[in-house]
């Protein structure tokens, strides 16, 4: 639940965005909104700035103008991504979710799960992933709290938006691999196009089929990975190509309660290549002992690698 939402002109602007978008708005609401605009020139600036924040993630822009007097005002400015799941929007433009209302999907360590959403989108959740869904009349909204997902998104009447930390991916259709671990995020477009926007820096970048975008130190980095290797997790495998043992263990340990640890930190720089099935660290440790100068020992339920 949202608590201690900031007060002041920015919060008031967010409230007006939500109120003007509500189905039960009245002419009295419209009149009160214009009185609020007239009370301080800065009010209009806050309202316009907050509206502009949403432009790149859903086409929210509309000029501020007084409605015609005759008939119901035709106010179509998008609000704070209105819906039962959303309570408010901060001045940065990030969605404030009501977790009690959002539909939650999650996986345990070593588990993968396939989910079909109401719009026909098919999601594959990787190990240790938490995802929240809130579809409303305007958007198909997801929040990737942590972990990794693959989204197959059919074309629909509403944009498909995924919040990933302080970033948002927006697309109309396609297939996308999205990862969010701590402060690190990465996006792969297997099919289709999308726009990714950082709410911290207001930067945005477009991504197309075969491309990967990663956020690092406030900047978006783009490359073209071997997509089949980068998405091998979808078939329960991990692919390493001259990766360090540290990197390989970091990936394999995500899938098992029985972690592999190093007795000597100097071993972390050993290199490994190959394709391995995830979720069976004993088998992986045995394979390591066959190709690297290491030996495995079971200790306290985990696996310790020692120099051979």
TrEMBL record:
Residue ranges annotated for the FecR N-terminal domain, each copy included: 12-51
GO MF terms, alphabetically ordered: sigma factor antagonist activity
Residue stretches spanning the membrane: none
Identification of the protein by name: DUF4880 domain-containing protein
Organism in which the protein naturally occurs: Altericroceibacterium endophyticum
Domain FecR protein: 105-193
A Pfam family that the UniProt record links to this protein: DUF4880
InterPro entries named among the record's database cross-references: FecR, FecR_N, Ferrdict_sens_TM
